[in-house]
Amino acid sequence: MVWTLRFAGLACAGLLLSPVSALAGPKVVSGPGADPGCFKPWSAQTKFFQWDKKPGPYKIALVNGFVGNTWRIQMVKTAKAFASQPGIKENLKEFKVVSTGTDVAAQLGAMEDFINQGFDAIVTIAVAPDGFDRIIRLADKNNVVVVPFDNVLDTDKVMMVNEDQKEMGRMSAKWLIDESGKKAGDILEVRGLPGNSVDRDRHLGFREVMEAPGNSFKITEVVGNWDTGTSQKVTADALAVHGHFDGVFTQGGSDGTVQALMSAKHPFVPMSGEGENEYRKQIADHAKDGLKGMSYGQSPALVAIATKAAISALQGNVMPQLISIPIPVATYKDLKPGTNYWPDLNANFFAPNQFTPCGVNFTAPEIMSQSEKNTQ
Amino acid sequence: MLDDVAIRVRQNIGIVTAVLLFSILYLLYNLSHPKGFSSAVLVQNGDEIFALAMLAMAQTVPVLASGLDLSVGAVMTMVGCFASYLLTGVGAPLHLDIFGLHLGLGTFPGGMGGILLGIVICLATGALAGFVNGCVVVYGRIQPIIATLATGAIYIGIALFLRPTPGGKIDEDLNWALTNSLGDFAQTIHIFDDGAAPWFAPVAWIPVPFVLLVLIALLVWVPFRRSVIGRAVYAVGSAEGAAYMSGLPIDRAKIAAFTLAGFFAGCGGLFLAIQTSSGNADIPQAGAYTLNSIASVVIGGTSLLGGTGSAIGSIFGAMVLRVISFFFRIFDIAPLLQPLFEGLILLAAVSIGALGVLRVKNTLELFR
Lengths: 376, 368
Hints:
The complex is a heterodimer.
Chain A: H1 11-17, E1 27-29, E2 40-41, E3 48-50, E4 58-64, H2 70-83, E5 92-99, H3 104-116, E6 121-124, H4 133-141, E7 145-148, E8 160-162, H5 165-180, E9 184-191, H6 197-210, E10 216-223, H7 228-242, E11 247-250, H8 254-263, E12 271-273, H9 277-286, E13 293-296, H10 302-314, E14 319-320, E15 322-324, E16 329-331, H11 364-369
Parallel strand pairs in A: 4-5, 4-6, 6-7, 8-15, 9-10, 9-11, 11-12, 12-13
Antiparallel strand pairs in A: 1-3, 2-15, 3-14, 13-16
Chain B: H1 2-11, H2 13-32, H3 39-64, H4 72-86, E1 92-98, E2 101-108, H5 111-139, H6 144-162, H7 172-178, H8 182-189, H9 192-195, H10 208-226, H11 228-238, H12 240-245, H13 250-276, H14 283-299, H15 311-330, H16 338-354
Antiparallel strand pairs in B: 1-2
């Protein structure tokens, strides 16, 4: 705080009026939190928050960033469906959804608008892991609960909901090592959208296990942007240059990665990837040919859990600062048609969408078959 | 007298449309907002509009000289990344690790002096990037659209080099002071009795970004437009051959146009970094800002062919662009239909400006 014009005599008044000290917001309390089956604290060190209890029903807004890929559309539809579910509906006076694109100023503006409109909570996917200090400050001042999920913030000042991205990377690495039974070889890593905390953490977790002492894997890294087309293209390029890989870890657009392997007539190898239905279909079809696949899933239903967490916080319950959602995993050994993948459906969507302990009970096809009109 | 007004309106139909459209939309927005017409809402809108308004101004200048600048978003991003190192408010040693070399650049001062120095360096960096653009266009004799596509990639590259992952910690009070009302500004930097001085009260509600915007427009744009170089920029865009025959400094005008664009884009990047108190080499965002800057220029009544229009119009263009999305926060519009609505209103806005075409008596007039 060196940003001060030193006018003698004003220093004391300045201390009293400094906006930094005017923060309200959640109290840090000791656990355990409410409904631990659904709101599981991230670790033993996770702090617990408690907001002042507010009378319901609440006004909640979902401020999405980028819109335009399957995951985000499924997420928006899940949010709408969840908000009209009995048990949730009664707690909501208003549920508004906006998408601001990849523009941080627009997202900050939208969040501030909802704070000014007197909304009680804002659920959001941040467009960047940094840059929301001002909004957090304003939200705390106005007692608004902000819940980032999926792409969370690098701060411990807000309540957040996510799956453990590092663990996904670790799981993927363990899967490749266990299924190939080797501690060396050529591995292809298809990364996600650069500059994103999800991409970074999955990568770090993956490398942590692959590069552990005793292993000597040669890892080729390409960037697939979590997009089927891009992922297919960069995998094809990598195959053209390197010829052969012993295992593949793809962060997303997983069906594109498999498609590239098939087009290049590359033998199927152990693989781990995201939760796309198309990818799970490929695993089911080609497991016997050697596509020993694992599919973890960052579920679009995280939005439902984040909304539920916001309501719970507004009701005055003790909440973990960082809520960990179990990672839904399916492997070629336990894929069941109609349960964790849908062989007859062609539309692309993300298969894991159910979290029973949290009361999120609709399956992915139910969500994606609804037209936008029905979810109003 | 009335005739005179009518002629002026007809000559500036683009900007008049933008101002009217913005006024109507913004009035409606405030009427439907539970806290409409309050300082808080103005502040929030000012913060959201500022960076885009600066980029719209940036884009206007090269467009007036009939060249597009595709690097404005990249310059904004790069300057933002510089700012995230220079505006921390705590003095820190700066060093550069490149090609395995470790170069110490000395210690950057902290405190108020350090922040002011950082701001100057950031703005100079933006202007320098624009100057390079201008030189590539003029001396390289490359089409502006291609030249700036290439230099834009370089600037994004520098931004990624500076901030491979988002980060940095810009001084908290600087962030708070510049993204709030004048009252909060005075309170944070402890001037005018911490903003409580009685004479200060009538203006305390005005958002700082709004003041900055007006200052930049009045102190940078208006003098530029009235200078010989500024008029030469218009002349180049209107008829380059005629401008050359008239002995106008064409090369200097073009370089000045791009340099000013870089400066304005730098202002936008600086503010965005302060607003987010961090730096982020976000490529999709840089692209979105570049496209939106072009849209703002068009809505603001500047011809993409060059020669007519003004940066003030583009500010209103940017405001129209932003205000459309404000409505999605007030009214219930299906989330997946929002982009469609935005597109329709934009198309309508641009069409109003083009209505003049209907009154043209001779088609040849369209081909100036």
